[in-house]
Design goal:
about 600 residues, alpha/beta, Rossmann fold, 8-stranded mixed beta sheet, 6-stranded mixed beta sheet
């Protein structure tokens, strides 16, 4: 990289507060940095350190009635972004500076089609005709590896998986070929193979159009692969700034060193058969106590599984045309079989849209299978009606990916933890109150916080709150659907350690749905790898990570970003293939899948 002498963006002494009172502390204080053409600047730090707030202020996206810029300027193309009027900033936003937001579901309009939202920006800023804008929009959907872009163009946000929505946001941000791209956790919701290709897409944009990138992330592997320079923020202040190689080789600030030690790295727990506790921020290696194995898993495996899934199929009808005729079916889950034993963690990994979440939702009755059997602690779940599912819901609970979306904004935290006990009439009123306080303490929250509302908690605290709610009925199995993927490194470590401690203490079994292979390696006893609705590999964690037998599993592990700037893999994307569509004709018959045992308990799919 050879940046020009004149910076493209120059931010000086940026100070932001959420109060007009000058005596109250600022959220961001004295932030200064420069960004040159064609440069990638990474901003890292814990949740609440001021990363996103700083970047949103540059585009005037913060509410003016509750956000106050006390000092500073941001010079871009000779103008101060912070002093622009509404007309001027509208000409910059989307065209010259674009932003990819972390939460795509809240960033996309739920009542407008994907195509309309994509073409709107292109027509406004590029002055293209609707037909030309549609052509470019479909091309961008194809570039971010969304299958069947013509059909996706007509769909709405709720019809897509979380990973697909994030790719739509990336396509939207890149459509106008901006000078600066602000990417706020752009790959958090994406699995490692899609993440790898999105990062390569960002690199291509940087090479082709000399685009500058400001990358906000908590993934140090992504920082190592993408960044030229790195800024580390802590509690609203920049504590360190260095080149990426300089920062990784010799971090100067104590906080930076602690942050680097807390990063999960693939291979750190290689050979361990059970879960391995995360090292917390600021915790030295010799201070990290091990997680004791849960009772059932520390002894020989019990003969009877807690959960048994046999030949599970989930399909969705595809209706098109004016008369909404049935034209095909989405084969979301196709012949999935597995078991989970008491006190065991089975990790379900795979690409976005492969059927992981659909499988998890089927276990608790949120999706109706087309065929197959689910046995949970003696109950045949697929044969039960709504009334019959009531006792089953006490046995299995779910923790969703987005804690804010899964909590009711109008109810206080205590009421939401208590609600399942009220519905199932567990204990007396006094016993329920006592149980709520105990659950708050168990997940590391003060009982007094029960009177707060969801917006008054941080992201990590909200996820703890969701775990407390899931525990309220004392379930035997919890489905964790990407429960830690959106959390920064330090909060992620705390939540995962909490899950492991609860498992050791209460003997809870976990179905851990994730795309983060480094986290899976620490959390799981066994791993199941899904591709296109099918399990292609399943076995003990140590065996799967040490000797992955299926080509898809090998590609997943090879795609994991490494937190080392000197570890560059030029062939990492050579095996990338276009995503296949899961839509099949109405008369389509799937071939039966055969599994081959390559090690004790370790199976891979072979061609029928």
């Amino acid at each position: 990289m050879n940046p020009s002498l004149q910076p493209l963006l120059s931010v000086s002494d940026l100070t932001i507060a959420f109060s007009a009172d000058p005596l109250k502390p600022a959220m961001v204080e004295g932030l200064s940095f420069t960004l040159h053409a064609g440069e990638t600047l990474a901003i890292v730090g814990e949740s609440g350190s001021g990363k996103s707030v700083s970047m949103m202020s540059l585009m005037q996206l913060l509410p003016k009635h509750s956000t106050f810029i006390r000092a500073g300027e941001a010079r871009f193309n000779g103008q101060d972004l912070l002093c622009m009027n509404e007309r001027q900033i509208n000409q910059v936003r989307g065209a010259q500076i674009s932003m990819i937001f972390q939460e795509p579901m809240t960033s996309l309009n739920p009542v407008l089609s994907i195509g309309l939202q994509l073409t709107e920006t292109i027509i406004v800023h590029q002055k293209l005709s609707p037909a030309q804008a549609k052509e470019r929009a479909i091309a961008m959907l194809d570039r971010v590896r969304i299958n069947d872009p013509q059909r996706r163009f007509r769909q709405y946000p709720h019809e897509m998986s979380g990973g697909m929505r994030q790719r739509v946001m990336i396509a939207m941000a890149l459509a106008c070929r901006p000078q600066i791209l602000i990417a706020d956790e752009p790959t958090t919701a994406l699995d490692v193979t899609i993440q790898a290709e999105v990062l390569e897409l960002l690199r291509e944009l940087k090479r082709e159009f000399h685009t500058s990138i400001i990358l906000i992330t908590h993934d140090m592997g992504v920082v190592a692969e993408m960044a030229d320079r790195v800024i580390v923020m802590q509690q609203g202040r920049m504590v360190e700034q260095n080149t990426v190689r300089g920062l990784f080789a010799a971090p100067q600030h104590a906080y930076t060193r602690a942050l680097m030690r807390a990063v999960p790295r693939l291979g750190e727990s290689r050979g361990a058969e059970g879960p391995v506790r995360f090292r917390l921020l600021g915790e030295d290696e010799d201070e990290t106590p091990p997680i004791a194995a849960s009772g059932p898993m520390s002894s020989p495996r019990p003969p009877q599984p807690l959960l048994e899934v046999k030949d599970l199929h989930v399909r969705y009808d595809v209706r098109e045309g004016l008369l909404r005729r049935l034209t095909g079916r989405v084969h979301a889950v196709e012949g999935v079989s597995f078991v989970i034993y008491p006190g065991e963690t089975l990790a379900l990994v795979g690409e976005s849209g492969c059927g992981k979440s659909t499988t998890g939702r089927s276990l608790i009755g949120l999706e109706k299978p087309a065929a197959g059997d689910i046995w949970l602690d003696g109950y045949e779940v697929t044969r039960l009606d709504r009334h019959g599912m009531q006792p089953v819901r006490k046995l299995v609970q779910m923790v969703f990916q987005d804690p804010f979306a899964s909590l009711n904004p109008r109810l206080d935290a205590g009421s939401q933890v208590r609600e399942p006990m009220d519905i199932h009439r567990v204990g007396s009123t006094a016993e329920r109150d006592a149980q709520v306080s105990e659950l708050f303490r168990r997940v590391g929250l003060a009982p007094e916080m029960s009177r707060r509302f969801p917006h008054e908690f941080s992201g990590g605290q909200r996820q703890r709150l969701c775990i407390a709610r899931a525990l309220s009925l004392r379930p035997r199995l919890i489905v964790a659907d990407e429960a830690v993927s959106a959390l920064d490194v330090s909060i992620q470590a705390q939540v995962v350690n909490l899950m492991l401690e609860l498992q050791a203490e209460l003997g809870i079994a976990w179905l851990f749905i994730s795309h983060d292979m480094a986290v899976v390696e620490r959390v799981a006893h066994r791993v199941a790898v899904m591709q296109m609705g099918r399990i292609v590999e399943i076995g003990p964690k140590a065996s799967v990570f040490a000797r992955p037998g299926h080509p898809y599993t090998q590609r997943l592990i090879a795609a994991v970003p490494v937190a080392d700037p000197s570890h560059q893999r030029t062939n990492r994307f050579s095996g990338a293939t276009e995503l296949k569509s899961p839509i099949r004709a109405l008369d389509h018959q799937m071939q039966a899948q055969r599994m081959k045992e390559i090690a004790p308990g370790h199976f891979i799919a072979i061609d029928a």
